[in-house]
């Protein structure tokens, strides 16, 4: 019986020696197997093979196995068409339909594989596929360490998980924590978006990705909507991204930047903190502040913490500030295919433009139609003219970039310096219930008042001999409606209707008190003189002190008093007896 068994071994070895197996040379181990100190471990065990053989001088006299070969080592099972077992090194080479099934449920298949039982490391080559619950890794060469339970490749690979397809040059996968560390250029393809970066770490348990380099998340339906960061975290389940360095969010043609940002791709809600800027190139506007919020689906944004906005115009930009600024777009009711843009500023609103400056509690600006609403003690300045009222509506020519008119509702009051070249306290004043102020070439040209119209205007005339303009008096007008025309240095009443009454006083016969309405308030302290004045509650400029020229009136009063004294002196005096 023993002779028959020996004969069987001899015949099997002779037959198997004719099978063309690879490799033909002695084992040359990859440096990967020498990266850690080796110590004698449990031997790799043969479970089954259809055939095996030992050929003198071949494979360093180590056995090789063929047909349904199965080896096991510490809970892992290796199957292949052919296996060479280097006994002294506790090392195997598997060829053809190789499969390594591990105790944790992961499976590696490949065309070839080398496995070191001492270091418990393996290298799989040719059409490598690592299957882990819920995902697969495809590459040409995969390095696997059972002790650390990590897999690594640097020959380019594809990772697929729940609709996500990831492409990268190299990556390390920790099968315990299920964390993949991508190195080099990475691309993650999802049905809804594409992520491209240079260093991404993905946790397959939480389905979150950490970005440690330049990374872009692009919306597939609208590639113009994207997120860029150089450090951040992305939750692929909730579609929430947290951005920490050099980040920006592009949405609906707008760009949001900030030091610390958050965005939810499902709800379209985002926040930004620190050095926040929202640019809107289509509207030629940008907003800045310490904190901002965006609502992508509503196409709106809000800015706080010393916010300001700039409407960039070719000739003369507009500057806005307030405690809170809101920008949004709405569909045009006339043309649903178009949108209209709006800007709102709440509490301590300011607006600066070279030809008009505004202070008010709240401001609403229809940027598309060029209509601005001012509420809460509004005051507007244009040149040496000041306009106040309960509410003010300003109309701008958006195409030509100039102001067209103002509509003042309730307690309308327009004040104009009678002569801007001197420091006399002489002011033209027009007031009433409603007032419309018209501009010409960005300067106040005409004021129309409806209801309880009143005016105090200075009348000038040119001396025929000296050709100099001389002040001749003051006109006090009371009318139902008034039209007042503003010239360079004067205001002329061109229409006074409905219960009209006009009195003209020479300068010698009108006192200073009668030259001002009781609610007169020429404000030089709060007026915005530069665009930087929008950043303070009040520029608090030194009040301009004007001189009161009452010489003629005082002389006339003195003459009257002297004449009265003379008349009194002529009267007989009664003497008591």
From TrEMBL:
Top-level taxonomic group: Bacteria
Keyword DNA repair applies: no
GO CC aspect terms: cell outer membrane; transporter complex
Pfam families: OstA_2
UniProt entry keywords in alphabetical sequence: Cell outer membrane, Membrane, Signal
UniProt signal peptide: 1-17
Keyword Coiled coil in annotation: no
InterPro entries: LptD, OstA-like_N
Occurrences of domain Organic solvent tolerance-like N-terminal (ranges): 42-195
PANTHER family named among the record's database cross-references: LPS-ASSEMBLY PROTEIN, LPS-ASSEMBLY PROTEIN LPTD
Entry protein name: Organic solvent tolerance protein OstA
């Amino acid at each position: 019986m023993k002779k028959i068994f020996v004969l069987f071994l001899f015949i099997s070895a002779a037959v198997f020696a004719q099978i063309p197996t690879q490799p033909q040379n002695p084992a040359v181990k990859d440096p990967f197997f020498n990266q850690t100190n080796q110590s004698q471990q449990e031997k790799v065990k043969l479970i089954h093979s259809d055939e095996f053989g030992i050929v003198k001088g071949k494979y360093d006299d180590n056995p090789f196995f063929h047909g349904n070969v199965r080896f096991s080592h510490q809970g892992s099972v290796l199957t292949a068409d052919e296996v060479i077992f280097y006994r002294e090194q506790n090392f195997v080479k598997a060829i053809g339909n190789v499969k390594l099934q591990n105790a944790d449920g992961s499976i590696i298949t490949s065309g070839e594989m080398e496995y070191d039982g001492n270091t418990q490391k393996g290298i799989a080559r040719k059409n490598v596929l690592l299957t882990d619950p819920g995902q697969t890794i495809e590459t040409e060469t995969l390095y696997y360490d059972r002790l650390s339970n990590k897999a690594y490749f640097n020959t380019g690979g594809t990772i697929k998980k729940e609709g996500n397809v990831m492409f990268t040059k190299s990556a390390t996968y920790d099968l315990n924590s299920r964390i993949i560390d991508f190195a080099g250029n990475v691309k993650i393809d999802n049905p809804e978006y594409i992520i491209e970066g240079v260093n991404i770490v993905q946790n397959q348990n939480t389905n979150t990705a950490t970005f440690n380099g330049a990374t872009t998340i692009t919306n597939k339906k609208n590639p113009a909507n994207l997120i860029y960061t150089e450090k951040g975290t992305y939750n692929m389940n909730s579609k929430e991204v947290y951005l920490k360095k050099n980040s920006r969010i592009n949405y609906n043609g707008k760009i949001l930047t900030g030091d610390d940002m958050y965005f939810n791709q499902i709800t379209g809600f985002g926040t930004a903190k620190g050095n926040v800027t929202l640019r809107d190139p289509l509207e030629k506007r940008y907003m800045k502040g310490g904190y901002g919020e965006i609502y992508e689906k509503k196409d709106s944004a809000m800015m706080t913490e010393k916010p300001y906005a700039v409407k960039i115009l070719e000739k003369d930009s507009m500057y806005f500030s307030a405690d809170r600024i809101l920008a949004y777009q709405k569909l045009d009711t006339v043309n649903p295919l178009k949108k209209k843009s709006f800007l709102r500023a709440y509490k301590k609103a300011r607006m600066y433009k070279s030809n008009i400056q505004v202070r008010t509690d709240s401001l609403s600006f229809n940027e598309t139609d060029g209509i601005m609403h001012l509420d809460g003690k509004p005051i507007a300045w244009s040149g040496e003219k000041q306009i106040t009222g309960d509410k003010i509506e300003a109309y701008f020519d958006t195409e030509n970039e100039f102001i067209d008119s103002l509509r003042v509702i309730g307690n309308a009051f327009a004040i104009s310096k009678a002569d801007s070249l001197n420091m006399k306290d002489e002011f033209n004043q027009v007031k009433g219930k409603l007032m419309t102020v018209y501009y010409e070439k960005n300067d106040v040209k005409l004021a129309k008042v409806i209801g309880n119209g009143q005016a105090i205007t200075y009348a000038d005339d040119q001396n025929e001999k000296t050709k100099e303009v001389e002040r001749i008096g003051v006109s006090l007008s009371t009318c139902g409606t008034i039209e007042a025309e503003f010239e360079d240095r004067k205001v002329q009443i061109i229409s006074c209707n409905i219960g009209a009454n006009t009195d003209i006083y020479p300068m010698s016969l009108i006192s200073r008190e009668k030259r001002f309405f009781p609610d007169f308030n020429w404000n030089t302290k709060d007026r915005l003189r530069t665009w930087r004045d929008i950043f303070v509650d009040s520029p608090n400029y030194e009040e301009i002190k004007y001189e009161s020229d009452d010489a003629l009136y005082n002389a006339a009063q003195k003459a009257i008093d002297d004449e009265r004294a003379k008349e009194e002196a002529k009267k007989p005096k009664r003497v008591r007896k």
